[in-house]
Amino acid sequence: LAKKRVVSGVQPTGSIHLGNYLGAIKSWVALQDLYETLFLVVDLHAITMPHDVEQLTKSTRTSAALYIACGIDPTKASIFVQSHVPAHAELTWLLSCVTPISWLNKMIQFKEKARKSGEDVGTGLLTYPLLMASDILLYQSDLVPVGEDQRQHLELTRDVADRVNHLYGGRKWKKLGGRGGKIFKVPEALVPETCARVMSLTDGTAKMSKSAPSDLSRINLLDTPDQIANKVKRCKTDSALGMEFGNEERPECNNLLSIYQQVTGKTQQEVIAECGEMSWGQFKPVLTDALIAHLQPIQKTYDEVSADVGYLDSILADGAAKANLLADTTLQNVYSAMGF
Ligand code: ADP
Ligand code: NA
């Protein structure tokens, strides 16, 4: 029986942070044993906002090396860079011509980002959900790991897949040799067990994000021990006594305890037994030490992987070769179904 296929990726917009790690990459590690997995660095997504050219080149490689450092095993999973597979850009065009603009206009992330950036946002900010749909549909993915923030995007992908199957996957498609009238597999969401949503260190009601202006708001996977200590020291606190989970009036407290729980692998009960009576002043160094201890082996492997340029290049070349093969099959089917 063929394993189900799972596809996921992170943008190389800036540094990969604890939110990307606990909300996505860490859960990929378990998936690679259960499924056929493809993990891409979605560099084409990184230019929907104005970007730094040299930074993009650098952080694309950094991201790929971090996937490996976080435990993605290139002998089990395919790791590749999105722009090394031209089919992503090509399919996006085809999808953009079959997707009503109203479907894109109602995407929450677009509305939020466009509101922040004013009128002159790039067209790509509107259409990038179709690039994401291409990332998924090109590989006939069965399952897509989704955080809360990506749910609407997966729904759009499913709707677009249905629409293409409906419009072009009929009798004509069968005549062309298509199987079961389906051009695209309609993917399902794979909701991670511990649905980690990591919040900003400076505002417990906003998610930790690469795009937040202040670097103090996030822990990056490559932060030094001093940087981590400084960020935890300066994070937002409150005046209540003790540490607790789930108090809506104390989002920062809940967030930091959750982070502590995740990086130590302890249960909530264990964390409460240990830290419930602590003051912020007592808890912060405990959290700092746990973060440093958790990130140290990742950083060590990262240093090794990035020092060996040939190794990383060969992983990415292998990954791209496999991805191109799969993606081209789908793309050619779409082209012929649409009459090309
Ligand atoms: P960012 O928002 O930092 O630009 P991406 O959009 O590249 O991150 O998201 C990549 C992956 O990381 C997605 O699966 C997303 O759900 C996850 N992710 C991003 N930020 C967080 C967060 N703060 N908490 C949990 N998961 C997150
Ligand atoms: Na994002």
From TrEMBL:
GO terms for biological process: post-embryonic development; reproductive structure development; tryptophanyl-tRNA aminoacylation. It catalyses: tRNA(Trp) + L-tryptophan + ATP = L-tryptophyl-tRNA(Trp) + AMP + diphosphate + H(+). The chain holds residues 61 to 400 of 412 of the full protein. Its main location: mitochondrion. It comes from the Eukaryota. Keywords: Aminoacyl-tRNA synthetase, ATP-binding, Ligase, Nucleotide-binding, Protein biosynthesis. It is found in: Mitochondrion. The lineage of its organism: Eukaryota, Viridiplantae, Streptophyta, Embryophyta, Bryophyta. Its EC number is 6.1.1.2. Transmembrane segments: none annotated. Belongs to the class-I aminoacyl-tRNA synthetase family. This is tryptophan--tRNA ligase. GO terms for cellular component: chloroplast; mitochondrion. It is an enzyme of class 6 (ligase). It comes from Ceratodon purpureus. GO terms for molecular function: ATP binding; tryptophan-tRNA ligase activity.
